[in-house]
TrEMBL record:
CDD domains: GT4_ALG2-like (cd03805). Pathway: Protein modification; protein glycosylation. This is Alpha-1,3/1,6-mannosyltransferase ALG2. GO terms for molecular function: GDP-Man:Man(1)GlcNAc(2)-PP-Dol alpha-1,3-mannosyltransferase activity; GDP-Man:Man(2)GlcNAc(2)-PP-Dol alpha-1,6-mannosyltransferase activity. Belongs to the glycosyltransferase group 1 family. Glycosyltransferase 4 subfamily.
Length: 416
């Protein structure tokens, strides 16, 4: 669908675009939504974001540059202790949000860009003046949960059907990687006639280039030369335990002198409203204590953009531990900051990281991760070599200009 456009011509004012997003927090999906909104606004589009939850203090700074509206936050996020019924509640919240926009907001718009939850699409179809709808599929939601009981399978069956059926109602479907495109085809059998296009996320290089890195004296003990960094939300599926286990394995491979110079920072999005965040943070802290890693690990929760840039600027290497990650924006941010990445050899990192060039792709076990970590200690020049290659790769394949152009083409050429 994306095509060439004459850059010598003034494209004129673009369409008005409304983004619908469930919860504007600090994850990769939220990063993409903000980058997409900013890219379209730069192209002359009138842009606004509607969400069921927005806390300016717990969101990327760029959100404050855009008109963000919130409706439906009074609705529950789950049906009880342990986060049960979260999927159903997310569907209800997004349907309510879409109804509010259509019936109560008085907002006029031409195009809707929604992601994560497709259940709102039928509501948007009820508009008197037809809205063109683009759905960005980060990953099929039905694959993000276990069905370990009959009741869970019974509960999920209608939700899974709604997801597949309503996803197919979008005018255009794009995904974040070729990996997700293949999963989409394998998962949504009734949508086999649809070939979703790949729109790779990009890095918001403006904020990276303009930021002045801060010193990390308050986060890293003195004398630490080899600083490893994990950036992920405090969720079990992100497998941050792998980073800690690899650190234990690394300890056994190094001399005491080298080990004293090693430190790991575990930084991640943290929301006290999310029970798993609270529980998993405590689990990781307990693991550090039991493994006697207290002097070699620092935990950082809900860090600022400036802190993240400072961490990437100063660290030796990023440890990216999720398996089958849909895409993963952290490796791109790290490579742009000339920081190599050690990642699991599955999912999106297979498309972003070049093995032995911009980092290492490893089996998801502590031995392989620790072997890759050890290489940076015995050959410190590896960081500079791989760092330069990583930045060049991001500029070549994942530039914000390419992202903005491709997205603009999708939005302006959606079928009537």
């Amino acid at each position: 669908m994306a095509g060439e456009r004459d850059h010598d011509c003034d494209p004129g004012p673009g369409p008005s675009v409304l983004f619908l997003h469930p919860d504007l927090g600090v994850g990769g999906a939220e990063r993409l939504v903000l980058d997409a909104a900013l890219a379209l606004r730069a192209r002359g589009c009138d842009v606004q974001i509607w969400t069921a939850h927005y806390d300016p203090g717990h969101c990327f700074a760029e959100s404050r540059e855009l008109p963000v509206h919130c409706a439906g936050d009074w609705l529950p996020r789950s049906l009880g202790w342990g986060g049960r019924g979260a999927a159903l509640c997310a569907y209800v919240r997004m349907i309510y949000l879409a109804l509010y926009v259509m019936l109560c907001s008085g907002v006029e718009f031409d195009v809707v860009v929604c992601d994560q939850v497709s259940a709102c699409i039928p509501v948007l179809r009820l508009a008197r003046r037809r809205k063109k709808i683009l759905f960005y599929c980060h990953f099929p939601d039905l694959l993000l949960t276990n069905r370990d009981s009959f009741l869970k399978r019974l509960y999920r069956a209608p939700i899974d059907w709604v997801e597949e059926y309503t996803t197919g109602m979008a005018d255009c479907i794009v995904v974040n990687s070729q990996f997700t495109a293949n999963v989409f085809k394998d998962t949504f059998k009734t949508l086999s006639h649809i070939d979703p296009d790949v729109l790779y996320p990009s890095v918001n290089v403006t904020s990276f280039d303009s930021a002045i890195p801060e010193k990390l004296d308050d986060l890293v003990p003195k004398g630490k030369q080899f600083l490893f960094l994990s950036i992920n939300r405090y969720e079990r599926k992100k497998n941050v335990t792998l980073a800690l286990e690899a650190l234990v394995e690394l300890r056994g491979r190094l001399t005491s002198q080298d080990w004293d110079r090693v430190h790991l920072i575990v930084a991640g999005g943290y929301d006290e409203r999310v029970l798993e965040n609270v529980e998993h943070y405590q689990e990781l802290k307990n693991m550090v204590q039991q493994s006697d890693l207290g002097q070699h690990v620092t935990f950082l929760r809900s860090f600022s953009d400036k802190q993240k840039i400072s961490l990437l600027h100063s660290c030796t290497c990023v440890l990216y531990t999720p398996s089958n990650e849909h895409f993963g924006i952290v490796p791109l941010e790290a490579m742009y900051m000339q920081c190599p990445v050690i990642a699991v050899n599955s999912g999106g990192p297979l498309e972003s990281i070049l093995h032995n060039v911009t980092g290492f792709l490893c089996e998801p076990d502590p031995v392989h991760f620790s072997e890759a970590m050890e290489k940076f200690i015995h050959k410190p020049s590896l960081k500079a070599t791989m760092g330069l290659a990583g930045r060049a790769r991001v500029k070549e394949k994942f530039s914000s200009e390419a992202f903005a152009e491709q997205l603009y083409q999708y939005v302006t050429r959606l079928p009537e």
